[in-house]
Amino acid sequence: MKNIPYLFLVTISLLILSCGEDPKSDPPTTTAKESKIAKKTDQQKLSKKYNFNFSDTQSRSLPLHIQNHIYNFSNIAEPIVLVNFFATWCPPCRGELPHLNNLQKSYKKQLSILGLLIDDDISPQELDLFITSQKINYTIASNQGENQRFAKFIAPKLRLKADFDIPLMILFVQGRYYTHYMGTVPEEMIESDIKQALNKIKGQQ
Length: 205
Fold this sequence. Notes:
This protein has helices at residues 4-19, 32-47, 91-106, 124-133, 144-154, 187-204; strands at 50-55, 61-67, 70-73, 80-86, 111-117, 139-141, 168-173, 176-182. The strands form 2 sheets. Strands 6-5-4-7-8 form a 5-stranded mixed sheet. It is α/β, with parallel strands linked by helices. It is built from 6 helices and 8 strands, in the order ααββββαβαβαββα. Helix 3 (91-106) links the parallel strand 4 and strand 5. The termini are far apart. It has one domain: Glutaredoxin (3-Layer(aba) Sandwich).
């Protein structure tokens, strides 16, 4: 009789343990129907089209169409595109300008640099003077509304906060994301990536 309370407690403990969900148990299996729905949803996301229409200081259109992770800069013939988010008041941005000029000059047949002006209250006239004084030899998109819209689109894809620091440069090769650079980076680093990308393109021909 003295063993009854002990046996009772052991029995109750076993019942409690067996009623709880096994923490090491496998997650519920996905049915074929659920897998098909998930796959269809992913395909719909991939097939969705995104359109941006940048414009330079001469009001020339620079459309960008995005679908299935392909970034099609339809008015740019060069296979490599370097997008640079910048502002004229930003010291690191200004420091990058001579290096970008050098890269554009060295790879003018393979590279197109597109500067996207954001968070800047500079007037169109002042921007023209800035471009001239800095001897910028690549395209500057001055429609900040559209530039900012693209910034909000691309930030989460790069795992960046919405109000990311500038300069931010993104390298696209044959319409696909290749790499990106945050802050000031050596010209040699960008050039090295451009050379690697060109070798990759050459190997595909």
